[in-house]
Amino acid sequence: MLLDANGMLMYYQTHGTGEPLLWLHGSLGLGADWQHVFTAAPAGFRVVAPDLRGHGRSTGARPTYSFRQAALDAFALLDHLRIDRAKVIGLSGGGITALHMATISPERIEAMVVVSAPAAFPEQARATQRAYRETMLPDEERDRLRARHPRAGQLETLFAQVRAMADGNDPDFTRDRLAAIAADTLIVFGDRDPLYPVRLAIDLREAIPRSWLWVVPNGGHGPVFGREAPLFVETATAFLGGAYR
Nearest-CA neighbor of 16 among 39, 231, 4, 243? Predict the structure, then answer.
């Protein structure tokens, strides 16, 4: 389905029934990526999965990517679906978007799971972003990305946005802003993330009032796929259901 909002067409899907659960993918991802983690919509939840601005079947790409704008787009989708209050899972850039949502309108985010998302990019991540190019990837991965983002120039724009993130100012959450978050928040980091050291997760845990920290042993960036998916599904759904609070 397509939503015309904020100067873009946002493609989204919904799956399952129950409490609204917004899935926010990371850079170069798609809304449908939730299906690589969950085999089906979690029991008791209605998954809402958009392609964020400029990704997949959504339009509206700009020279630089704004996670804050992505948060406003997500609120427009929730408004369209008449969802006043939601739970959220945000992965990497989607986690940054979730943090924006929870600071812009704290009352609208009931609980969230924020995976591999820092308050600000550390220098080691910025160095990777500045150098990031399609030519660095194996042919198989490049073909996969082009199939996911097929419009002329779309993938080139997304790579350029990632490079521009290194010298942008989003994210740039202060402790005061994070302290305004009212949502119960599970912070998930891998202890072998090449972009974001675990100390950033500890900073988030100390700044967000109602937060819990899960460091995934031997986990890399976005430790929710493949062999790590079953434990993530069990832990995240239990947390969102209130089991750990």
Answer: 39
In whole angstroms, give the CA distance from residue 91 to residue 188. Answer: 9
Is the confidence at residue 177, as pLDDT, over 70? Answer: yes
Q: Residue ranges of the domains in the chain?
A: 2-240
Question: Which pTM does this prediction carry?
Answer: 0.97
Please give the Cα distance from 98 to 87 (Å, whole number). 10
pLDDT digits (tens, 9 = 90+) for 22-68: 999 999 999 999 999 998 999 999 999 999 999 999 999 999 999 99
Using the 8-state DSSP alphabet, how is residue 118 labeled? -
**Arithmetic mean of pLDDT, 133-147:** 95
Query: 168 CB contacts (<8 Å, ≥6 apart)?
Result: 64
The DSSP H or E segment spanning 190 is strand 184-190
| C-alpha–C-alpha distance, residues 189 and 217, integer Å | 9
* Omega before residue 63 within 30° of 0, cis: no
In this predicted structure, the answer to whether residue 181 has a pLDDT above a threshold of 80 is yes
Q: For residues 197 and 172, what is the distance between their CA atoms, to the nearest angstrom?
A: 17
Alpha-helix residue ranges (DSSP H) falling in the chain: 67-80, 93-104, 123-131, 139-148, 154-165, 175-179, 198-207, 229-240
Query: Is the separation of the CB atoms in 16 and 42 below 8 Å?
Result: yes
Residue found under tokens 């997500």:
74
Q: Is there a contact between 163 and 134 (Cβ–Cβ < 8 Å)? A: no
What class is the 2-240 domain?
A: alpha beta
